[in-house]
Amino acid sequence: MLNRVKAILSDADHRHTAINAAVALVIRVLGAGMAFVFNLIIARQLGAEQAGYFFLSLAVAMLLAAVARLGFDNTVLRFTGANANNGITVKSILSFALKYSLPVASAIAVTLYFLSPVIASSVFNKPQMANSLAFIAPAIIGLSAVTIIAMSLQGRHNLIASIPCQNIAHFLLCGAAVLSFSTSTADTTALYLSFSLGVTASFFYWLALKNLNNSGDAVNADALWQSARPNWVIILMSQAVQWSAPIIIGVYLVAEQVAFFSVAQRIALLTSFILMAVNLVVAPKFANFKAKNDMEGIRKTALFSVRLLVVSALPIVLFMLLLPEFLMGLFGEQFKQGAVILQILVLGQAVNVVTGSVGFLLMMSGNERDMRLVTIISGCGVLVSVPLFTSLYGVIGAATATAFFISLQNLLAVYFVKKRLGFNTLKFWQKI
Hints:
The protein is mainly alpha-helical. The chain has one domain. The protein is about 85% helix and about 0% strand. About 60% of the residues are buried.
């Protein structure tokens, strides 16, 4: 067994993937821990009702930020990964994406700010959350910026900056503010988050442009738009699968149920933080292999990464499935009611992990249209089934529908990877 491991790691690409995945995993563990602590702070400081208003407002902001990014997240990652050593090209890709996405984000934020009373009362039947919607509106700009900047840093393999930019810094600042000022309301917390995102985006934008070399040329705008258009649909549908459930629950049920689901969802996402860490490493590698037309390099890296995921994630999945009440109880006695919700969502995320980086495989290899079709199917499935199941079976129905379509999305992506690239990531034991 040891000799087999040594043989695999003797391959330079596998060694690079393993080492960088380990580095990414360490940083990602810190990020996951910070996100967990942040959610713990929100739940305990605000209580179930106010936490429900905050998480519902945050879900709205995240969906709207996905709209505002115009599909540039993965486009920036793909083109930066293929031109990581060309400073002028890297800068032009980032500047182009921000030039178009931030004005759209600003317009959406202003619209949400002024319409927040109407949305809170007419859509959610929760007039008490009008202020939290209004105060989280600027976060749409911040979320758009930090995501695109993080993709640029990731494409250059700067994981030490990319992960904190997207997942740690703003949670750290907001959580510290909530504790320091003993905040107990959703609207003040939303304001702190918006401010924290602004500070985070400004700092990491400066860091992203620091010390770039003068090689390369400005990127072709048509090529960026050609990639961004299908990516936009992919991002919107993926975000719909992940974040529309809290919004739909907010329409049908009380704020406390939103809080239970949101906390369970965020705990379940910890099962896929290893996948996210591996994605940080392999996604730009896929883009680079594709640019060289090295399809064997893509196959080997993909299968090797799935092996890392299966070995790493299985203990976490089992822990969450066996001790859901303990985990939910950390957020308060009331939250134990969400134990079954957690188990259902963990199963969906487990499928997400064992299928590997299939979404990035398709997008980084130029098969965005296939991934667009996959996400349209799963996104539409969520948007149809979650309202129906929520009205019939409450929050358990919403969790079941969400977990099913997360699983379906990844299994369909596995099919298209097999069709386009010629290998099956579920057969991770095959020779590499």
